Each structure stands twice: as C-alpha cells, then as structure tokens.
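For homework, think about our next protein:
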Amino acid sequence: MSPPTHDLDHDISKFRQKPFLLCCFILLLTLITGHFLFIILIHHLDLMPKQMASSAFFSSNGFLLNFIGNIWLGSTLLIALIKMKKSGLFWSLALFIFDVCSTVFWIFTQNWLATAGALGLMLIGIVWGTCIACFIYLRYLNKLGKLD
C-alpha cells in the first residue's frame, strides 16, 4: 500500500502559522461587515424603528452607497486575509479610500452628524483605523514573505 500523496499535517501546520494579529483583523472586519449588512437588512425588512428610518437611514444615495461598498470591499478584504494574499494590501487601502470618499459624499448630501451620531463617529474611527493598521501590518507581513 502506498502512502497518501496529500500531507494533512503540512496543511494543519500552515493553518497554525497564521499570525494572531491577522486573526484579530479577520474577526474585526467580520464584525464591521456584519454590522453594515445588519443595518441594511433590518431597514429593508422594516424592522428599524420608525423615527430612525423616516428621518435618517437611506434617505440619500450616499448612505446606501457607503454601506454596500463597505460590505463588498470588506468581504473581499476578508477573503484576502483568510487566504493570506498580497491583494489584501490593495483591498485594505481601497476600503479606506472608498470609505473616506463615500463618507465625504454622504456629508455633503445629507446632515451626516445627525444621521450617524456619536456611534457613527466611533464606527468610522474603528473602520478607518482598522484599514490603516491592516495595511501597515500586511506590508510588514509582505516584507517577511508570509503573503502569497
């Protein structure tokens, strides 16, 4: 009987070598992307409180563009991080630039602070900080040769 051609121990050890900080970024981006998806879903299922739905959420195209773009770019960044690809550098920077541009557009088309409130300011700080920190960390991993 010949030995198996696929080495399962090598695959498991490669999985274990994923840096802890990278796993933290994966978790944080999953939560951020899930948050945006949750807000879109509760709004479209009419589960959002009436005062929030009628006065703020999705009353301008900028808000919907911001959330859908963040979900798409965040998901692609998550995939790149899980696979430890160099494209994560591009996607983290793209997510940051897109979010800055779409938030500025949203500010100019609607009373952004009244819509987002203090929680929105905190969330923007978390999203932007995560994108920049992820980009810097991915550059470090790339210099070490750990990204494919």
